[in-house]
Specification:
Length: about 1400
């Protein structure tokens, strides 16, 4: 057994090549130079019983890497003669693909006619008594994976057959009748089913006797509905439940981890069935009729410590069993609905008790509901009944069938209680949640596993899949997962700080800190200052205030500045540590973290005020000179829910948590906004979610995926400056007839208005027009679009202008940002009364969009940029709220000055420009003058010269002209048009003043900024994080918007996409104001960042709303031309996209020239072991490769010597460890040498998403196993960052054999795997890309590359270079930083 197999790790390349399974695969199914042997069924048998039956994960991984499923198991599968081992092998390999998060169902579509028979064969295996408990678990995991794959129509169709109406045939008939009451349509369907299946609805013994007689007489006869297959499907889930209950009842040995694992996985499967509407609709009755939850709660496993995960999973199942939804309409049930249902059940129970169970239950029957609904009261009343009467009352209530059963009294009582107890509202439960994690949650590994979760185990976590029951369900799952993900990050920070402070026990038993931590300081004093009374209807304090004091005397420099930077609303953590060991003693590393380091309690708090030694309140504007002393006191707001729980703990155990704190910990501000986001989600759960009707069903994952698109198609649209000319319009709609409407013989120029006649769908009517705001602007002065959009880009722009949902998939370099900007511009011009919200994931992307908007014809007074990133805009103008208010006030002065000038020009001497009010009154006079002028022109005798003499504002406009210029030309028609345009300018002046008037009337900055936000600004930009943090404030001031555009949508968490949809509230009478939602992203690139692998792999927290919509089949518009990379480089990733071509720009100018000093524009360079080593792992998941780092830095030096600008070169890698190693080597060899300097960026592939550079040096690091580049989304990002040159440094033998990477590495391996240089060239070169140079140089390895750099440098400067800057670093010289990967 290899080392990797012993530790359950990924097998290394050396182990793969030397393994017997690899040799076997090369003989039988892996294509190679030699022909593979014919299919041998015995091979499958041997592999299953030797390798797969006991699920040795590294062995299964090895088979999966060799494509055992795709190339051997499935092509040879034949339902009529395939064995148990063959079927189980396929099941296990599918499970492995899901565990590794790679595509699982692709190969089955090649023989999809066989798949239903395979699926039926798997179902039949469940009935086999020969299965081991492990094999039963594999089968359950297979079902879990199937029911989580509803986006695949082949799988979905087969799964839904198992949860259809026929499964009710195994339910108590009286219970079915009760369920059918008030559902006439369902009742008819059930009657039809019964008529077609005469034995349906009978008890099992009757059906069994009848079935045996039929099988004896007519063994081969099959009816349409009553076939063996139909019977299998209708009875399958009931039989599965019964088998589980039998297994659970037989479990007495708690060391039997396999049986415990089976039980946990089974409950996980039940949770999956109950958390999707199509599967729970019929199955819930089966679940309730079998009393699975009650029986499981009464099991031996449930009561034991070993059953902690089982208990948590069962609580989730209990929650979903009673979830607030009508299974048949899909409508959510309100609190009032749930209360009515509860009262109806209790009243029905009272009626039965009164009729049949007197005198035992007489008092119960006559009591009011509030007196009997507590669980203790119910149990007390039922305790008066005998076992027989307990069974009878369950029969009357249809909870048990009318036949003798040997059930325990405890079971009979628990059925009654669980069916009639009052269910706690989940909203109330969430409102009672502490938002700060405590020590109990922080180290509960069942819900927050460690970083090395490998996908094998089951977890008590909700899943984000395709469908959700209701918006409440959606929010609750996201609330829990976001809370747990942030808790995991907090745990990592706490563990780091606690390790560093080195708590040790003193001789008198106290705790002292002998170490030092950047993020934590000892507490000098802590006290609760004020606990306010609960508000009406609650039992928790309204607010809890505390004060904590620390001393900054031990901090210096940057650390001191960071502590002084703690401000209002920052979150800090109070730790209670009781040191377990004294100075000089060693920690017991076998203990859990809390016991090992003596961590007792953890509580969170929000900074309300900061005080110095004198008690003076400090704020962000306080300079260091204003801060007295080194002692700082922080007034904190504690979590009142947690405080209430702590009071209960104190009353029960006498422990006062708040007298034990001795360490204060802070966190990085960017990572510490979790509380505000959790509060936002909780607010949404407590409010009526204003989701538009057209988006409701699609959002939850139901109905027609097309239903949210093109809700209200507008026939005539102003495309403004979208098209450059008429020919551009024709290119954009190649299948349409363009009918141009023009006045006389005038030249047809943009802007264009297009009409799409409903009666003539193949025709488009084009007409030029001039809007009122452009009528007085010279065409040369207008800021207009310069991009010649492709037909697909135009399609995306048109779709975005119609109401509804638009999804735009933008591969790398396809102009996603330009499309987004044009859509917003067209909204602005088409719908002047509507407001637009622009949201992105990052500040960088938001600023890029905003800057492009500023370059278009959009008035800057209507633009607003919220959040801290606005200062990074490349403009001197301030687009923040305060900046825009100042702009409006300054603009007011400018416009009033213009009003004064206008008044003087018409000899009005009053102070009309004093205020906007006086200016408005003056406008009435101006209008009178204009009307008189118009009337004078209507006179039949009006002559050409009359215009200049009669135009009232001639002096005003001529004063603005240059010397020698005149306003009117002397041609009547032209002069009349000039007068009209001049009047438009005058009107625009007073119209803008009207907009500014509120800023004059409002006095406070607060009121002015709010008015700007809710009225003045028409395009508001923010990041998704800002939207989540500020939703409460935005809703409070009445923020409204009509259109939403979200860029980088595939990189944003589900909940962070959902929140921007709901930044406005609505009354119940109102319709949702949101009319359009455009999501632009690329699900083929990296998803949102989730640090904990369990939440990523198990719960799919990294699934974006954009990706989910794509999985659901919502139509997308796929941009199909890229203009970033050379066409050759684009071929490395365009296989991932549908028909991705190249714009003409990538076949011109710099793209036609070769890369100076290199033969190829892209190349894979094979890097063998350096100093006897490939990849290293100084810390878990902190991978480094010194050979690749040295090689890349040497190539960078070579490029700089040839004249490549440093800002045009970026170095990226797939791991954080390698990033730090390369930075160290660059610092050592290049930073202090001006000839080299530092490259533009040294970062990871993940961090570089959304960015690009001319030349990319890429390090793949791994030499033992492929690692996470196997995720093709990461591969696409890595390959698509370069414009002109891409050089990939890796271990060829490892990556070229990976199935998922085949499309890319097949191209890379067509070129030599040794770097090929062209000597004696400098940057830039005139050599053409396809020109063969006279001489080339093939670089053998790292040392050879270093010699090339040395020689190049000597040639350039004629002296010997510094050895330190050119020689490769030995492994002992490299001292990389250590941090978590």
């Amino acid at each position: 057994m290899t080392t990797a197999q012993r530790h359950g790790q990924t097998p290394t390349l050396r182990e793969i090549n030397s393994d017997e399974l690899t040799k076997l695969s090369r003989l039988y199914w892996v294509p190679g130079p030699e022909k593979t042997k014919p299919f041998d069924a015995q091979i499958i048998e041997d592999i299953y019983y030797k390798e797969l039956q006991n699920l040795n994960t590294p062995r299964v991984m090895l088979l999966e890497l060799s494509h055992y499923l795709e190339d051997y198991l499935w092509p040879s599968y034949h339902p009529e003669n395939s064995t148990f081992a063959h079927t189980m092998s396929i099941v296990i390999m599918i499970n492995e693909k899901f565990r590794e998060n790679v595509r699982a169902w692709g190969c089955f579509h090649q023989r999809e006619q066989i798949f239903p028979q395979f699926f039926d064969r798997v179902l039949q295996l469940f009935a086999s008594e020969k299965n081991t408990i492990k094999e039963k678990t594999y089968l359950i995991i297979f079902l879990i994976n199937c029911f989580q794959s509803f986006e695949d129509s082949l799988v979905r169709k087969l799964c839904l057959r198992l949860v259809g109406l026929p499964i009710w045939s195994s339910v108590n008939p009286e219970r079915v009748k009760l369920e059918l009451k008030g559902k006439p349509k369902l009742e008819r369907l059930w009657a039809k089913y019964l008529s077609e299946n005469s034995d349906a609805g009978q008890d099992e013994s009757s059906k069994g006797k009848k079935r045996s007689r039929e099988e004896d007489n007519k063994p081969n006869k099959k009816s349409k509905s009553g076939s063996p297959q139909s019977t299998l499907e209708s009875n399958f889930l009931v039989s599965l439940v019964q088998d589980y209950l039998k297994t659970l009842d037989s479990l007495t040995d708690l060391t039997d981890v396999n049986t415990i694992s089976y039980c946990e996985r089974f409950i996980e499967f039940m949770n999956d069935l109950m958390s999707q509407l199509p599967t729970r609709r019929m199955f819930q009755l089966v679940l309730e009729d079998t009393h699975l939850v009650v029986r499981s709660r009464l099991s031996y496993l449930y009561s034991q410590p070993e059953g902690s995960l089982f208990r948590q999973l069962l609580e989730m199942l209990k929650f979903y069993q009673g979830f607030e939804i009508n299974n048949f309409t899909g409508l959510p049930l309100t609190t009032q609905d749930m209360t009515s249902l509860h009262y109806n059940r209790i009243q029905n129970l009272q009626i039965v008790a009164f009729k049949f169970f007197q005198p035992e239950l007489r008092d119960f029957a006559l009591s009011n509901i509030s007196a009997i609904e507590p669980i203790e009261k119910l149990k007390h009343h039922f305790s008066q009944l005998s076992d027989e009467k307990l069974h009878q009352i369950n029969e009357y209530l249809c909870l048990l069938p009318k036949k003798v059963q040997n059930e325990t009294r405890e079971f009979l009582t628990e059925i009654l209680v669980s069916a009639h107890q009052k269910r706690i509202s989940q909203i109330e439960a969430v409102n009672d949640f502490p938002l700060y994690p405590s020590e109990v949650l922080l180290w509960d590994l069942n819900v927050i596993p460690s970083q090395n979760y490998n996908g094998e185990g089951c977890l008590a976590l909700p899943k984000l899949n395709l469908q959700f029951l209701t918006f409440h369900d959606y929010l609750l799952r996201n609330f829990n997962l976001f809370r747990l993900e942030s808790t995991y990050e907090i745990r990592e920070d706490i563990e780091d700080a606690v390790r560093r402070v080195m708590a040790r026990k003193t001789s008198d038993g106290h705790t002292e800190f002998t170490g030092w931590a950047r993020m934590a300081l000892p507490i000098k004093d802590f006290k609760i200052k004020h606990v306010s009374k609960p508000i009406l209807g609650e039992n928790k304090p309204n607010q809890v205030r505390a004060e904590v004091t620390i001393n900054l005397a031990t901090t210096r420099g940057v650390i001191r500045t960071e502590w002084e930077g703690l401000k209002v609303h920052d979150i800090v953590f109070l730790l209670s540590i009781k040191a377990p060991i004294s100075q000089g003693e060693k920690l017991n590393t076998s203990l859990p973290f809390r016991k090992q380091f003596g961590l007792v309690f953890v509580r969170g708090g929000e900074v309300e005020e900061v005080l110095d030694e004198t008690g003076k309140v400090l704020d962000e504007r306080s300079y260091n000179s204003d801060r007295t002393g080194t002692r700082r006191t922080y007034r904190l707001l504690l979590d009142s829910n947690q405080y209430q729980q702590d009071l209960a703990l104190q009353a029960e155990k006498g422990v006062d948590v708040y007298k034990t704190f001795n360490l204060l910990m802070r966190r990085k501000p960017k990572e510490n906004n979790f509380k505000a986001i959790l509060e936002t989600i909780r607010d949404l759960m407590n409010s009526n979610c204003a989701v538009p009707d057209w988006l409701h069903d699609v959002f939850l994952g139901y109905g027609n995926p097309n239903a949210a698109q093109n809700i209200n198609q507008i026939q005539t649209l102003n495309f403004n400056d979208t098209f450059l000319d008429v020919e551009h319009v024709k290119e954009s709609f190649p299948d349409k007839e363009i009918v141009v409407q023009q006045k006389g013989g005038e030249k047809v120029e943009r802007p264009f208005r297009l009409t799409f006649p409903a009666t003539q769908p193949n025709q488009i009517i084009l007409e030029p027009f001039v809007s009122s705001q452009h009528s007085f602007q010279p065409k040369t002065n207008r800021k207009q679009n310069r991009i010649r959009f492709t037909p697909v880009q135009t399609k995306a722009i048109k779709s975005g202008m119609n109401e509804g949902l638009t999804l735009v998939v933008g591969p790398p370099g396809t102009g996603k940002t330009d499309v987004a900007v044009q859509i917003i511009s067209n909204w602005y011009h088409n719908f002047p009364e509507q407001r637009t919200l622009l949201v992105t994931h990052s500040n960088q992307a938001l600023n890029q969009l905003f800057e492009k908007l500023m370059a278009l014809d959009i008035n800057e007074r209507h633009l607003l940029r919220l959040g801290h990133g606005q200062e990074m805009l490349e403009t001197e103008k301030d687009f923040s709220k305060f900046g825009r208010v100042n702009y409006m006030l300054n603009r007011r002065l400018e416009l009033l000055s213009e009003v004064d000038s206008l008044a003087k020009s018409i000899e009005v001497n009053d102070d009309v420009g004093y205020t906007t009010e006086t200016a408005t009154n003056f406008f009435h006079h101006i209008q009178t003058l204009w009307h008189k002028f118009k009337q004078s022109l209507s006179d039949k005798n009006a002559a050409t010269g009359d215009i200049k003499s009669k135009f009232p504002f001639n002096n005003y406009f001529e004063h603005k002209l240059g010397e020698g210029e005149v306003l009117f030309k002397g041609v009547y028609a032209e002069d009349k048009e000039i007068a009209e345009k001049s009047w438009e300018k005058v009107k625009a002046l007073f119209s803008e003043l009207k907009e500014i008037r509120p800023f004059e009337l409002l006095i406070s900055s607060y009121d002015r900024t709010n008015y700007l936000l809710i009225k003045q600004a028409r395009i508001i930009a923010m990041t998704c994080t800002h939207a989540a943090l500020k939703r409460r404030d935005l809703v409070a001031v009445g923020f409204k918007y009509d259109n939403l555009l979200m860029e980088e949508a595939a990189q944003i968490l589900e909940i962070e996409t959902f929140i921007p949809l709901l930044l406005q509230n609505q009354n119940e009478e109102e319709q949702c104001r949101l009319k359009r939602a455009v999501l632009i992203g690329d699900h083929n690139q990296l998803p949102p960042v989730v640090k904990n692998l369990a939440f990523q792999k198990y719960s799919h927290l990294d699934q974006s709303l954009f990706a989910r919509f794509v999985r659901l089949g919502v139509p997308t518009i796929d941009l199909d031309y890229q203009g970033r990379s050379r066409s050759t480089i684009a071929s490395l990733y365009n296989w991932k996209y549908k028909d991705l071509g190249n714009l003409s720009c990538v076949n011109s100018n710099e793209y036609l020239l070769a890369n100076s000093g290199f033969l190829y524009d892209y190349q894979m360079i094979n890097v063998e072991d350096y100093e006897g080593r490939g990849e290293t792992e100084p810390n878990p998941y902190f991978y480094q490769n010194l050979g690749e780092a040295e090689y890349i830095v040497a190539v960078y030096q070579y490029m700089r010597l040839l004249g490549y600008p440093a800002e045009k070169i970026s170095i990226i890698t797939t791991y954080n460890g390698q990033k730090h190693l390369i930075r160290d080597v660059i610092d050592q060899k290049c930073s202090r040498v001006p000839l080299f300097g530092k490259p533009h960026k040294i970062t990871t592939v993940d961090r570089f998403q959304g960015q690009q550079n001319d030349y990319i040096l890429l390090s793949l690091v791994r030499t033992k196993s492929v690692g996470h580049i196997r995720d093709t989304r990461r591969l696409v990002v890595a390959m698509s960052r370069a414009r002109l040159g891409l050089f990939v440094f890796c271990r060829r033998a490892l990556f070229e054999n990976c199935f998922e990477l085949t499309d890319c590495f097949n191209l890379l391996t067509q070129r030599p795997d040794k770097l090929v240089l062209v000597p004696n060239e400098s940057f830039p070169t005139n050599r053409q890309r396809d020109e063969n140079p006279a001489t080339t140089l093939e670089v053998n390895d790292v040392l050879h590359m270093s010699q090339v750099v040395r020689g190049t440098l000597q040639t350039q400067i004629g002296t010997a270079p510094s050895p330190m800057s050119l020689e490769p670093t030995s492994s002992t010289e490299a001292t990389p930083m250590v941090e978590d990967a």
